[in-house]
Amino acid sequence: MASPLRWRRLLAGPAFALAAALAAAGCASATAGTGSTSANTPARAAAPVTTAQASQAFDSYVATTAKAIRTDDRTLALSVVTAAQQSLLSAAFKMYGARSAPSPSSDPAAYSGTLGLTPATYTYGTPTFYLPEPAGYPRFFVADVTRSVKGSKAAAGAVTSVGGAQVPVDGPALMLFEQAAAAGPWRLAGVSQFPAGMALPRLATDSNGYIPQVRLTSTDLHAEPYAIGPLQAAVVDDGPASAAAKSVADGPLTTTMYQSARDRAGTGLEVPRGDVYQWDMEGTPYPAFALRTADGGALVLYAMYLNSTVAVPSYINKGDPINPGSPIKIPLEVALLLPIGQPTPRTVVDAQDLFSFAAIDPPAATSKIEVIAIGGGLNYAAAS
Q: Is residue 105 one of the residues assigned to a domain?
């Protein structure tokens, strides 16, 4: 796993009782969820993003991606993405590029689930662009657009699971574009979709139609925007019992994600008798952004990792020796991220999802924080 910062929740197989000390096991180099919270303090003056520039960036992304798919050019496809979206696309190429699971035998029971060998591609409607007031770099804008899986005949209202949350197969999505420097290209940084019942609030605009940016350290909101990710993480880790639940609303991307993680609904990982199952949400190194809503709150855009582990107790306890246990059955998509020839794991399986989120940070003391959109999927896996 990619350096988990904190283990918040532990479950054991029925034959093993966990000591309370295990709740603090793992590396504690930083507080979970802080990685995605670096303030977007302007580094130098930047010109406002125009509608024409946003439209050109969006169209270029769509056209370049279509060409990359048509010509099977992965380098070209990666050239128009950055941050979370680049990491996810790299993982997808690794998964879909593997034509067979790295199985040590022909036993299909070593893996759970099925996976198609072609990543989804989309058609897009006409986007609405949300353009921020100028600040520093990186510059960004948000495209609100309806997209559909190309070539699919999804039934009306069909949904798919993202992090345990049910989101429409076809429907509106928020696409975050970034430009790192004045001479740099625009790239897609993240995509998030709305579960049923969630919607984008009305955003504030100035006299020129631009949306004011909100500093990630602003104190006029329910929480400073940089803290939204850590607060969500606390609820996903500990559920309604978390102290953060006083500030974060129940919903599909908070308490439901907690229940899904607890039940392993989004992972497909199976826990052999005596093994330990853990999960943990933590921050990423990718920039977060915030836009002012019409009611004085903020729309916060950020990314988080969700780490899941199945391991023998001696691995968790850093024992010596670490004795392998029973074979750990893993989902096919996790297997496709492991090296070819990887033996069936018997000691540990680490899986990491990477999600883009949108959340509403309301004005101080008016209501709870609400996480309204999610996108992403499996990003990394390791096993032994």
A: yes
Query: Nearest-CA neighbor of 301 among 355, 233, 254, 358?
Result: 358
Q: Token pair 């169209």 is at which residue? A: 59
User: Closest Cα partner for 130 from 23, 290, 14?
Assistant: 290
Q: How far apart are CA 97 and CA 27, in angstroms?
A: 33
Please state, in angstroms and as integers, the Cα–Cα distance from residue 161 to each residue in 168, 226, 265, 267, 303, following that order.
Answer: 9, 27, 9, 11, 18
Structure tokens at 14: 């029925």
**Helices assigned H by DSSP within 160-281:** 228-238, 255-263
Q: Are 290 and 213 in contact (CB under 8 A)?
A: yes
Residue 1 lies in a domain: no
Amino acid at position 172, single letter: P
In this structure, is residue 4 part of a structural domain?
no
How many C-beta neighbours within 10 Å does residue 315 have?
Answer: 19
Q: Which domain holds residue 116?
A: 9-383
- Number of independent structural domains in the chain: 1
Give the model confidence (pLDDT) of 83-126 as tens digits.
999 999 999 988 877 544 444 433 333 444 433 444 568 899 99
- What pLDDT, in 10s, does the model give residues 210-248? 999 999 999 999 999 999 999 999 999 999 999 999 999
359 lies in a domain?
yes
Strand pairing report for 186-193 and 330-331: unpaired
Q: Which residue has the tokens 């609820």?
A: 235
**pLDDT (tens digit, 9 = 90+) per residue, 249-301?**
999 999 999 999 998 876 678 899 999 999 999 999 999 999 999 999 999 99
Q: CA 117, CA 95: separation in Å to the nearest integer?
A: 8
Are the CB atoms for 326 and 346 separated by under 8 Å? yes
Six-digit token pair at 341? Answer: 């020839």
Q: What is the pTM of this model?
A: 0.85
